[in-house]
Amino acid sequence: MWFTKFQFMKKSFLTPGPSELYFTVEDHLKTALKENICEVSHRSKIFQQTFLHTVNELRTLLNLPQNFHVVFTASATEVWERIIENLSAKHTYHLVNGSFSSKFYEFAVQLQRQALKYQVPENQGFDLEKINPPAETELICLTHNETSTGVSMPIADIDAIRKKYPEALIALDMVSSAPYPELNWESIDTAFFSVQKCFGLPAGLGVWIFNEKCVAKAQALQQSGQSLGTYHSIPSLLSNAVKNETPETPNVLGIYLLGKVAEDMNRRGAAVIRQDTNYKAALLYSVLEKSNVFKPAVKEKKFRSQTVVVAEAAPENIKKILEEAEKQHIIIGTGYGKLKDTQIRIANFPTHSKEVIEKVANMIQNFS
Amino acid sequence: MWFTKFQFMKKSFLTPGPSELYFTVEDHLKTALKENICEVSHRSKIFQQTFLHTVNELRTLLNLPQNFHVVFTASATEVWERIIENLSAKHTYHLVNGSFSSKFYEFAVQLQRQALKYQVPENQGFDLEKINPPAETELICLTHNETSTGVSMPIADIDAIRKKYPEALIALDMVSSAPYPELNWESIDTAFFSVQKCFGLPAGLGVWIFNEKCVAKAQALQQSGQSLGTYHSIPSLLSNAVKNETPETPNVLGIYLLGKVAEDMNRRGAAVIRQDTNYKAALLYSVLEKSNVFKPAVKEKKFRSQTVVVAEAAPENIKKILEEAEKQHIIIGTGYGKLKDTQIRIANFPTHSKEVIEKVANMIQNFS
Questions:
Q1: Number of domains comprising chain B
Q2: CB contact under 8 A, A194 and B249
C-alpha cells in the first residue's frame, strides 16, 4: 500500500455510493499502470483479454447463465435510457417506491413511452396483488434495491411476477445490491448495476446484462423502423461484445478494475459475501430495533435491504450521529432528497468490514 | 513515482489514443486516492469544487468565452449522439474524409435525420467551394482532426464556413487535437473531445462544450414535442452544471484528473504547447518528405495534422518500422481500418517528449 503513513486518519465511507473502495483497488491500480492498461488500444489483444476476463469473473460471481450477454455502459443511469430505447415501443410498467425507481419511470416518459406506474410511499414494499400491468405491457421495470430508501424486493416476488406475466420482458435494477442477491435468472430478462456501490470501484462504469429474448425484441423494433439509438444500441453493443470489444473507447481502467475485484470476490466466494452481508445487516437492524432514538425506516422485515440499511430519527439526532461518526472518521450516508434530515443510510457493502459495522452498531446502541 | 525500478523498460505509446499518459497522471492518481476523490458523494462540496476546477482550467486552456458551457459525457462517441439528438430535428450536413467523420454522419442516419454529406477520399481535405449545405440545414458537422487519416481542417476554413452559413449551428469534433487548435470561438457553436488523446488521460470521459444558441435550439426542439433523450439532454446537463454537478454519478476520477492535467498544461501555457507541437510535427514531416521509403499520407501541407502524423509506405516497410520501434519500446499507431497495412499513425501529443519524437524521426531517416 502506498499510504501507510496516512492510514491512521483514513476515512471509512459507509455511504451508499460512491462508497469505500474495495480494499484491493489500490493494488490493482498500481498493477494497471505497470501493465499500461490505460495506454493500450481498445482494439488490442490485451484489451480483449481484459474484457473477457471481466465478463467471465462476473458470470461466475453472479452465476449467470450462458444465454445472457454482458456489456458495459458509462453508468446505470445510462442503462435506464438504453433499456427503454431498445426494449420497448410503447408500453412500459414500473414499480416505484423511491427516487431511483421513479427516475426509471420518468426516463420512459421522456422517451415518449406510454409508461404506467404502481407507486407506493417511500420505505415501503409492493403488494403483489396490486401489481397489474395491462396485457399490452412490453417491459416491466423492477428495482431490486431502492437505494434512496433501503427497500428491497424479495426474490420470491420477482419470481411470482414472472410467473404471472411470462410474456413481458422483465428488467431489474440491481444498482446497489449486485452481487448480493441470489437471483433466479429465468425470472428476469435484463439486469444492470454500477460499480461504485457493492463493488467498491471508482464511478464511471455500468454493467448491462440481457438475454436472447432482449436481443430478439431489439431486432424486431429495429425492423419495424424504430431507432434504437446509435453506438449503445443492443445490436451495436452485441456485435462488439462477441469480439470482446466495445463500440467506443470505453472506461478501460474501470473494466480492468471490475474484473480484478470480481476475481477477488470469487476467491472469497459469493456465498461467503452473502453470509457476511447478512451478519452485518442483522447487527445493524438489531440495534435499530432496540434503540429508543433510531428506528429502521422500513417497517416490514421482508422488504428491508441487506446492503443499504436506512434508519429514521428526529432531525437533531440524525445531525448528531453523523457528526459523531465523522469524529471517528466514519462517513455515514444522509437520507436521500427530502428525507435528508430525518434518515441516515448505512451502506453495508462487501468492502465494509465487520469491525466498522460493529463500530456503527455500538454508536447507535450507546447513543444518548 | 512508484515504478522507478520499471522505468528502464517503460514503453512509449505514440498511438493516437488511447496514448501515453500525461507524465503527471500517476502523481495525481496518488493524490486522488489520498483525498478520497473516488469515495466522496457526487453531490458533495468536494465534488462541486472538483467540477468547477476542471471547467475553469479548461476555460483558460481553451480560451473559452463565458457564453459557452462545459459538461461531461462518457466519451466523444456519446457526444456525436447527443449533438444529433439535441441540436437537430431533421437536417444535418457532414464533411466526411475518414472513419470518424463518417461515424458522426452515420449516427445522424441512425437517429433518422435527413443527413447529407460531402465526402472526399481519405487523407484529403475539403474544397471550400464544394461545401454547399442546403438552406434548411440546421447543423453543420465538422471534424477538426480526422484521427483515422491525419487530415486537419484549417482554422481559416472553419471561419469561412461560418461566414457563409451564419444561420446553421456548427459542431466541431476536436477529439484528437484539443487543446492544440487556437479556435475563433465565434465560428462554432459546439465542440467536443475525449481525454485519452492530447490530454493523456485514462479513457472514459468526454467533454462537451456548447453555447447559448445550442441551448435555445434544444429548448425549441423540446417545446416542439421532440424527445431530447433523458439524463444527457442539454437541459438536464445544464441544470446540473449550474450547480457544478452532473445528472448521473459520473467518472469522478476522470473529471478530477482532467482538471489536474489541464492545470499542469496551463502552467506550461497553451502557446508553449502549440509551439512544441509544431516543432515536433515539423521534424516528423521533414524526415518523411526526405525519405525514399515513407511519405506523408496527406499530400497538401495545409491539411496535415500537427497532432496525428500519418505516413504511408509499402506493407513490408510498415511492418518493419513498427517492429523496429517496438524493439526500442516505442509503440507507433498502425493505419486505421483498411489502411492498417500501408500507413502508420504517429501521435504527437503534449505528453510526447521531443526526445521520443526525435528518436522516431531518426528511425525514419535511417530506415533501410
A1: 2
A2: yes
